[in-house]
Amino acid sequence: MESLDLYTVAALVVGLLFPVYAIWSGKKTKQILIKNPSAKTLVFRDTGIILIILAAISIIPFLLDNKNIDVIGLNFLDKPLWIIGLFAISFLVLYVLNSVKLNERVARKFYQANKRLQFLMPTTLEELRITIVVSFIAGICEEIVYRGFLFWYLSQYMPMLLAMVLANLPFALGHLTTTGKKNTFGAFILAFIFSGAYMLTKSLWLAILLHIVVDLYAMVFAYKSYRWFLNIKHADYKM
């Protein structure tokens, strides 16, 4: 199979087949989690594995074609300090989030805003820890797949703005049946912010960082607000 065909196959998998699968399986996953909350850890783990596979599918054609992956925004991989900085800043943000003590007003507001998504949110330390890992995986892999590879592929056949819309649409639709229309729209807006960071810097570095920070904020504060209402040390925990 020619390398061009590999790019097309990869684009079809990450841009069409996976979103369709996510929409199809999302409702079932939601039902499972509502009936059996203990399955949450396995769902988080499987999500991380799937995202790693999608990122690999996006990168493999470049490796087989001996094509520089700089074209999909990974032009910082040969700069160790940039990689160290990415993780250092992310862990610093995690430390700050972990140190924040929610007052009742903030905790109540955050809890109410996410109450209908509680089946997806971490409620135990074990769940929190794995969602933190998945936050890093998602921030890296989803940016490679959607803002990097799929946008690059589509931009060769259509105007840049249209390519950006179509590259971000599968990312948003992947949230549809599990988180609902409101959160899907929110994911779509966030996707454009990440795209803007990529377009501004010509690198996925900032987009990955922003994505990781957003996910960490959502998971840590969801856990803290839930524990607040259970009155367990007002979310004072050791990770």
Question: Can you offer a commentary on this structure?
Answer:
This protein has nine helices and no strands. The protein is mainly alpha-helical. It has one domain. The longest helix is centred in the N-terminal third of the chain and has 33 residues, at 3-35. The radius of gyration is 18 Å and the shape is globular.
Provide tags for this entry.
9 helices; 0% strand; mainly alpha; single chain; 239 residues
- What is the rounded distance between the termini? 48 Å
Cα-atom radius of gyration: 18 Å
Spell out the helices and strands N to C. Answer: HHHHHHHHH
Per the principal axes of the C-alpha atoms, what is the gross shape? globular
Structural class: mainly alpha
Residue runs with pLDDT of under 50 for 5 or more positions: 232-239
Strand content: under 5%
**Portion in helices:** over 70%
Mean pLDDT rating? 90
Number of β-strand runs? 0
Count of DSSP H/I helices = 9
Number of domains: 1
List the helices and strands and how they pair.
Blueprint lengths: L2 H33 L4 H25 L15 H20 L4 H10 L11 H30 L5 H14 L2 H4 L1 H21 L3 H26 L9
Helix pairs in contact: 1-2, 1-5, 1-6, 2-5, 3-9, 4-9, 5-6, 5-9, 6-8, 8-9
Brief sketch in words of this structure:
The protein has 239 residues and is mainly α. It has one domain. It is 77% helix and 0% strand.
